[in-house]
TrEMBL record:
Descriptive protein name: Signal recognition particle protein
Organism phylogeny: Bacteria, Bacillati, Actinomycetota, Actinomycetes, Motilibacterales
Encoding gene (name): ffh
Subcellular localization(s) per the UniProt record: Cytoplasm
Source species: Motilibacter deserti
Domain called AAA+ ATPase: residue spans: 99-303
Reactions catalysed, as given in the entry: GTP + H2O = GDP + phosphate + H(+)
Length: 445
């Protein structure tokens, strides 16, 4: 997402950085570039106009003119205005005073509602809730079944129409589900409603009827970020027809231009609360406007990266490893395997690298990282015995052949791994003892 926008913005800032002082015409030129970049990214015109006008006005203020680094100040302003457009502060789900909290999902068919219900359930469970997923999409033939599967995967309870009861009445299902949740002490109810291919008055009425029956604490409008300008039109139609309190953007992992993400909050006056960026249950997060702005401006998203790391890395293991390293012991293949396994829990390597600042310029290399290469490396190390992992020097020809067979690779791939690891180990040894890496003859090498 946002690749073109990111490239365009960084070209604009590069142009500005080359200048010590910024004249009015420099700022006007940059504002024009910003405008084109945002329109190309499919951001809605009124949003672009307001954004560019605000940046231009602030950039021309004496405060910027007199600052030590005017270009940096303009970047800060663009960042602040982007955050404002994206909705300012992140907003959390409002929980009902008396449980259950009812969350209703609405949106077009294919927007990702059912997938989202599962992600939300998993996330809610992580927050200590006991969610109940409710299938009120009785329109799409397989929707009930799909939600049931998703609920199982998310480890959540499920409520649907009685089997063999014909199509059933979604309003009745929703009402009974809330009563069931109260009885079984599920504190959050997530109601998945029927989508529609286009804006359809009848189905919109159905969602409104469900809303009136269960009085949701939060109605979330789910929108596919890849549908471009249509997102704004659809959002407006749902706002008028059903009303909603928050927005969920899905498919942010796609390569579309992403203008929807930048327009919907501003146009509807409703916060984006969650973002979905993949088909797996974990590809989901609370939406933070500041982190999103940072990503768009290629300033990275270290906060999300660190939170991800805190979740997957075993604190004790990290401390043990640091101590081991400091006491001059070797970093072994066993340690390497452990680190790799934990790191990979955070997502794909390209996702992890993509969260580092300034990585926009290495996008091609990052996107071409082959995860299968990591799978192969992992398989080779896993085919070694613990003794071999601790001391690769014992790896003679027959052991190497066994590892190649066990991991489905070749002896030359095993040789290559061991050679690269031995070199890396040497380098780490020299760093640990204060020498310069990779410089023979230097102290500590
Ligand atoms: P619904 O009709 O609104 O319930 O939509 P579904 O949940 O059935 O999703 C429609 C399709 O989009 C499915 O193939 C999902 O796997 C896919 N999908 C949902 N969310 C995402 C996402 O964040 N990223 C990607 N790439 N695909 C998604």
């Amino acid at each position: 997402m946002f690749n073109t926008l990111q490239d365009r913005l960084s070209a604009t800032f590069k142009g500005l950085r080359g200048k010590g002082r910024l004249s009015d015409s420099d700022i006007d030129a940059a504002a024009r570039e910003l405008r084109v970049a945002l329109l190309e990214a499919d951001v809605a015109l009124p949003v672009v106009r307001e954004f560019v006008a605000a940046v231009r006005e602030r950039a021309k203020s004496p405060e910027v003119q007199q600052s030590v680094n005017p270009a940096q100040r303009v970047l800060d302003i663009v960042n602040e205005e982007l955050i404002a457009i994206l909705g300012g502060e992140a907003r959390r789900i409002r929980l009902a005073k008396t449980p259950p909290t009812v969350i209703m999902l609405a949106g077009l068919q294919g927007a990702g509602k059912t997938t989202l219900a599962g992600k939300l359930a998993r996330w809610l469970r992580g927050q200590g809730h006991q969610p109940l997923l409710v299938a009120c999409d009785l329109q799409r033939p397989n929707a009930v079944n799909q939600l049931q599967i998703v609920a199982e995967r998310a480890g959540s309870a499920f409520f649907g129409p009685e089997p063999g009861n014909g199509v059933g009445d979604p309003v009745d299902v929703a009402r009974r589900a809330v009563a069931y949740a109260r009885e079984k002490q599920h504190d959050v109810v997530v109601v998945d409603t029927a989508g529609r291919l286009g804006i359809d008055a009848e189905l919109m009425q159905q969602a409104a009827d469900i809303r009136d029956a269960v009085k949701p604490d939060e109605t979330l409008f789910v929108v596919d970020a890849m549908i471009g300008q249509d997102a704004v039109v659809t959002a407006q139609a749902f706002l008028d027809g059903v009303g909603f309190d928050g927005v969920v953007l899905t498919k942010l992992d796609g390569d579309a231009r992403g203008g929807a993400a930048l327009s919907v909050a501003k146009v509807t006056g409703r916060q984006v609360m969650f973002a979905s960026n993949g088909e797996k249950l974990d590809d989901f997060d609370v939406f933070h406007p500041d982190r999103m702005a940072s990503r768009i401006l290629d300033l990275g998203d270290l906060q999300t990266l660190l939170e991800g790391a805190a979740k997957v890395f075993d604190q004790q293991q990290q401390e043990d490893l640091t101590n081991k390293f400091l006491s001059g012991q070797d970093f072994t293949l066993e340690d390497f395997l452990g680190q790799m396994q934990q790191l990979r829990k955070m997502g794909s390597m390209s996702k992890i690298f993509g969260m580092l600042p300034g990585m926009g310029q290495f996008r091609e290399q990052i996107e071409s990282i082959d995860e299968r290469e990591l799978d192969r490396t992992q398989a080779m190390i896993q085919s070694m015995t613990p003794a071999e992992r601790r001391d690769p020097k014992i790896l003679n020809g027959s052991r190497r052949a066994r590892i190649a067979r066990g991991s489905g690779s070749s002896v030359s791939a095993v040789n290559d791994l061991i050679q690269r690891f031995t070199e890396a180990q040497k380098m780490m040894r020299s760093m640990a003892s204060g020498g310069m890496p990779g410089m023979p003859g230097m102290p500590g090498f």
